């Protein structure tokens, strides 16, 4: 007899809570970047949904000139543990010299990815590099790295949805879900 590992998902953060928080974050960011030439740098794949929602809110708050570009770094792949040394899989097309860069992340866990990203972008002559993360799994942090804008601090549970995956599945859920074993 084969026993398969199965799991179910429960809602951790509802779509309404997410959208309300995105609006709040956008209000703060739009105040802080009002006179600046903002470049959002979304980190593929997980942050695509958050980046899009955040950018739309920023537009509605008057940041109509904000730009967006994307990078892909690999820290987890299909693994559960961070590799600790993320590598760039897809780079920006934008020259960030003199730009005010806001890295947009779906989740910060150990902090290795964000630490590496901030170092890479800082060396490219950006005027500023800050971070906006929807989720902060703070108790998992291995390296201290600043996150200027945080959506939600969450406990150490496996989450997916709203762009975040479990072995590539689950990204399309409009809520943030936590994954529980059902066996
Ligand atoms: C996730 C997440 C962050 C990183 C955070 O990306 O989007 O980039 O891990 O982990 P850390 O703080 O421990 O470094 P992942 O590598 O899973 O890629 P994905 O977004 O394409 O799923």
Explain what you see:
The chain has helices spanning about 15-30, 50-60, 110-125, and strands at about 5-15, 40-45, 65-75, 85-90, 100-110, 130-135, 150-155, 160, 175-180. The chain is an alpha/beta fold and about 180 residues long. The chain has a 6-stranded mixed β-sheet, sandwiched between helices. Strands 1-9-8 form a 3-stranded antiparallel β-sheet. Strand 2, helix 2 (about 50-60) and strand 3 (about 65-75) form a beta-alpha-beta unit. The mean pLDDT is about 90. The chain binds 1-O-pyrophosphono-5-O-phosphono-alpha-D-ribofuranose. 1-O-pyrophosphono-5-O-phosphono-alpha-D-ribofuranose binds next to strand 2, strand 5 and helix 3.
Please report the distance between the alpha carbons of the first and last residues. Answer: 15 Å
How many E strands? Answer: 9
- Give the names of the bound compounds: 1-O-pyrophosphono-5-O-phosphono-alpha-D-ribofuranose
Class by alpha and beta content? alpha/beta
What assembly state would you assign to the polypeptide chains in this entry? single chain
The outline comes out as globular
Q: Per DSSP, what share of the residues sits in E-state strands of 2 or more residues?
A: 25-35%
Enumerate the strands of the largest sheet in spatial order, edge to edge or round the barrel: 4-3-2-5-6-7
- Number of alpha- plus pi-helical segments: 3
What would the average pLDDT be, to the nearest integer?
A: 92
Unreliable parts: none
SSE arrangement, N to C: EHEHEEEHEEEE
What kind of sheet is the major sheet?
A: 6 strands, mixed
Rg result: 17 Å
The helical percent reads 10-25%
């Amino acid at each position: 007899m084969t026993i398969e590992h199965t799991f179910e998902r429960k809602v951790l953060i509802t779509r309404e809570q997410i959208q309300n928080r995105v609006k709040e974050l956008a209000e703060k960011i739009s105040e802080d970047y009002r006179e600046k030439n903002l470049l959002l740098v979304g980190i593929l794949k997980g942050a695509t949904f958050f980046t899009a929602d955040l950018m739309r809110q920023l537009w509605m708050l008057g940041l109509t000139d904000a730009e967006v570009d994307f990078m892909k770094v690999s820290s987890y792949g299909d693994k559960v543990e961070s590799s600790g040394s993320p590598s760039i899989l897809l780079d920006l097309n934008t020259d960030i010299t003199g730009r005010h860069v806001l890295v947009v992340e779906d989740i910060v866990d150990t902090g290795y990815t964000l630490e590496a990203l901030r170092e890479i972008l800082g060396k490219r002559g950006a005027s500023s590099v800050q971070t906006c993360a929807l989720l902060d799994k703070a108790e998992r942090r291995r390296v201290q790295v600043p996150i200027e804008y945080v959506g939600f601090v969450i406990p150490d549970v496996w989450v997916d949805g709203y762009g975040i995956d479990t072995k590539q599945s689950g990204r399309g859920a409009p809520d943030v879900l936590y994954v529980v074993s059902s066996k």
